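Weekly puzzle thread! Below is a chain. First person to post its structure in token form gets bragging rights.
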Amino acid sequence: MLGIPRKVKPGQKKPAPDRIRAQHQAFMQRIAELPPEALADEGVQAVRSFLENLDCKALIRLPLWKELRANPNLSFRLQGNSELVCQRPVVKAAIEQMAEAAADSGEKGICLITGDERGISRLHPAIKGVWGAQTSGANIVSFNLDAFRSWCKEQGANAPVGERPAFAYTTALNHLLRKGSPQRLQVGDSSTVFWAEKPTEMETAVVDIFGEPVKDDPDRQTEKVRALFHSIHVGRYVEDDAATRFYVLGLAPNAARIAVRFWKVTTVGELAEHIVRHFEDIRIEHGEKQPEYLPLFRLLVSTATQGKADNIPPNLAGDMLRAILDGVPYPRTLLAAAVQRIRAEHEITYPRAALIKGCINRATRNSNPEKKEELTVSLDPDNTNPALRRAGENPARGQPGHQRHHPRPLLRVGVEHAGGCLPDPDQALQAPLGQARQPGTGGQLRTPAGRDHRRHW
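Winning reply:
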């Protein structure tokens, strides 16, 4: 830009002086090629005047020179203005016009994003940051084989997107997917990003709510959920930005491309209500050292073999997040996976018990909207269900015991109340979900203590 070589590290090759001068001249020529209305802008005129009268010796004597050489990413701004020269409306319009004119396909068409006629992008820029995809980047839109082509069209012409819109959506996704992004969440194999049509706290809060607590601030997730509950109760999202449109996009690797795992358009108010509903559904009595609100990852990994994230059942993470955002019943495979892990490991953990409770209550509410929940947070001594009363009795006194000390009733209730969803507990995953139960078939549940609970349907 300035025609001055940048500082290089020891051992690195210094750039050739001829190449530096050529780059400086190319930058000047690029500015000179702007449309007349852009060249008449006072910001552009100031930049051209600065470059044409550049005094390198005076520039080197500036206090900021060392910083300029160490970080040579520069731009220009007029004194007294808050925006950069390249952000001025006339300059932005000129840059977009030049980009459209330089469309690599040379073909015009109706853009699927803007709906107007413009130069069509032949190859879209690569998207980086999607877990499991190529490190060099991958594409959402790509046509590299004849079988994908239609009407003899090539590459981007099969799904026409303008040069500028293609640059815009890929740049925005690369920004959202960047390392350390506060709007990015890894859910299973899906790299999920969140944004709204205008700045709102929910854009970053939703990541803290569903993500794992960070080491330097382990209470952040709990505080965010509590704040969300409070906001709903006091009506904050109704009064402020409840109607603000909110977007959720889940991307997953698919060979050399990127697949859209799920896409959700909602509002901030609706999203807040559905998230609160989720945490209420899975809320259950737990130990003092257990987290009050379980992160999404801990719920999913509790259904995985050996508790490894790589073993989370395919599509389960995306299906569960979609169910949370839509406020609909959790996927049936989630209940089956939780019961399978309990039967395989003979251990009813806090996350698995919470999942079973949430699955049953959501399914109950979906089939009978007037009934809010089938299972409560803790053992209900007034519940007349025979299975719950038998499983909740204290073996020593024959009195209902506290659920925190008797986790087995949750599994028993989970199996029995899933009557229309799961087959015989000993064959929980050997028959399709939703299979009707045959009268007179026996159900057997083996507990960690080695006792058998039998029941006939």
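Puzzle host: Confirmed. Bonus trivia for everyone else. Residues 1-101 form one domain.
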